[in-house]
Amino acid sequence: MDNEQPLAPAVESILAAARDRPVPEGRVSVTPRSLPDALAAAAADGRAPVIAEVKPTSPTTDGANDDDPVALARAMVEGGAAALSVLTEPEHFGGSVGTLTRVREAVEVPVLRKDFLLAPEQLDGVEADVVLLIARFLDDLPGMLEAARERGFQALVEVHTRAELREAVDAGADIVGVNNRDLARLEVDLDTFERVAAEAPDDVTLVAESGLSTPDDVRRMRAAGADGLLVGTAIMAGGVEQVTANTRRLTEAETTDTETNE
Fold first, then answer.
1. Is the pLDDT reported for residue 50 higher than 90?
2. Burial 35-51 (b: 16+ CB within 10 A, else e)
3. All domains of the chain, ordered by start, with CATH?
């Protein structure tokens, strides 16, 4: 775990809740849908490879979206999302493992479990195609990667710095997310992806995370090497029909110039 900068109080609170969460019983075994294949297929189809996030609320957003998560997930897929991310952290994001199960049963695209997983036994909470592992929070990233793969999961390893990228690659990560949000100050800077991604090996699937809200942002991250784009708040704004439109606006970013012509 990287302790060079203190975490934001909101992040410390999330981690404290994650440490205290009850350990699930039993052990999952997953046959995953391939996230890299889904992202590549979307790009080949002329769509920006968006991972749309079902996120009821978060410490960095105002209010909550109370629409049915399954309806929202289907709306995102209708809008062209290549994959979905579902929050399962309950205390700060309003998520649940039950929501992820319902969403995964309702769609055919890969589904990422977005949570703060700190120990191998926490991986057994629910079946998903991909799990998020945040490099900064893990003392034994190779061990968590191995534990995830033993259960059949693909792992999206999240980093924020070049040092964390090297740690992830050395641990064997083949899907890496670069978070544009600084977990110390919770500030977003899209330069982060451009700076970190420049040092990533060619055989790593790169996902740009946080702060993406416009077609211009999508094009910028794609030009910097993003194979996928994780988008939550910008897509979740509005009701179900608006979610479809929000998703389509971003997935069609590479084939339209509507943003620059307005």
1. yes
2. bbebbbebbeeebbbbb
3. 32-254 (3.20.20.70)
